[in-house]
Amino acid sequence: MKIQARLQRLSGQIVDLHRRVVFPGTVEWRGGRIKAIRRDDAVKENRLIMPGLVDAHIHIESSLLPPSEFARLAVIHGTVATVSDPHEIANVLGEAGVRYMLADARRSPLKFNFGAPSCVPATTFETAGAKLDSKAVARLLARKDVRYLAEVMNFPGVLGRDPELMAMIAAARREGKQIDGHAPGLRGKQAKAYADAGPTTDHECFTIEEARDKLAAGMKILIREGSAARNFAALAPLLKSHPDRCMFCCDDLHPDLLVKRHLDEHVRRALESGADKFAVLRAASVNPVEHYSLGVGLLREGDAADFIVVESWRNFKVKRTYIDGVQVASGGRSRLPRLAPRIANKFKARPVKAADFAVKTAGETVNVIEALNGQLVTKHLRLPVSECGVAGDVLKIAVVNRYAPRAPVAVGLVRGFGLKAGALASSVAHDSHNIVAVGVDDASLAAAVNLVIAGRGGLSVVGPRVKAVLPLPIAGLMSAVDGREAARLYTRLDRAAKKLGSRLDAPFMTLSFMALLVIPDLKLSDRGLFSAAKWGFVPVSG
Prior knowledge:
- This protein has 542 residues and is α/β, with parallel strands linked by helices.
- It has 2 domains: 59-265, TIM Barrel; 354-537, no CATH class.
- It has 16 helices and 27 strands.
- The strands form 5 sheets. The protein has an 8-stranded mixed β-sheet with strand order 3-2-1-4-13-14-15-16, covered by helices on one side.
């Protein structure tokens, strides 16, 4: 990106988030930095000029796009920076995966701030493609371009003061870098014990009561609204009660939504809720910049010229986005060039057969995962065997090991997907990213999984009149095509899944979290059915 050397000016209503005032004036910048901000009561333009937006926690991989392509869509919505955890690709490719994200991000002007993943693999109860021990994490934290210790997901390990986890936390402290938390459901004394160990943020609160307990423990709360987990409505009151301790994040955002919105939607909803406009915008910019010590401008003289132009408070429509003084988006279009990504992957799974998905039940009851719309948490149901099948919406769910070609298929049962026919499969399966699939019959499950295997990663739908796949050749997580094309293909798959009967808002995003063992309660890994409450495996038969 070429930074302009000549002096540039833009007039409008300037939003000063530090003095909490809005005034008519002109911003002047040159060489990527703001030289002056002048009040001028003669300025009549109504457009708002304010700091750019910062996503305080997002997995870029979950957009199904590499960083350089993610940026092309995000800048349209006023995003100038992200705090990004490369945990997903690290589980596939290890340190090489983190380096991949750093290298691709450098091709874009968007200010990506990556962390060192702390839980690769997330648990010892699944097969991942790599392992990052405390020495590897310390190496990453020593890099200037790695800004923080990414979410410490193994909260039982933190509560038990696991030596490896504590060594990672100690390394972050030595480097003077923040420590991100991930502690779903922790309350009271447990929340305090977790915070006392080092984590300073949490993005997993799904009730206001949980958030208040973590605030009392000294943590900051990230208000999340993504594709699968949507906690904005529950946590929005914190913008009024604890405005300086809130930030906004998406966590996971699939491309169909990224083409439509990013943090601009958080801001719109917060303003509509009646929250103070300065508190809202500080949560979207100042708070994350100050918490993580980011090199992102906040519309002050001497700052990097990272700012946005918004049409009005009422619609919060982003008209232009500037990063280091260069206009990177205008009128709903990105000005960033399309850059072909490098392909990196690890995929050893071989085709499967319908017989691989057979499951035997003994007894009259079974343990069943209940998927919840808009949540990452699941419930642990014990149901009569007679309820299994399409009529009871108790379907087979399977995880196929992508790293070992002859590993047996793990099979369980799930309620909540609502499929009446066919199957869905995905190599985006948090956190180890094996292949996860749900379906009404073994033949459909095998067909959907084999589409993913043939593409060495992807999302697939198989049904009576559909057989479609979105290939994800970059680590089995990201597409190599244009972001809008990836969004179109994803939308096609999403619609196909819903035509097969799924009632979920985002069936593929929900499916991708059915193997995430660190989120309570019942999930499925490539090694079997796992209860986070018991922190161990349970049989399919109850």
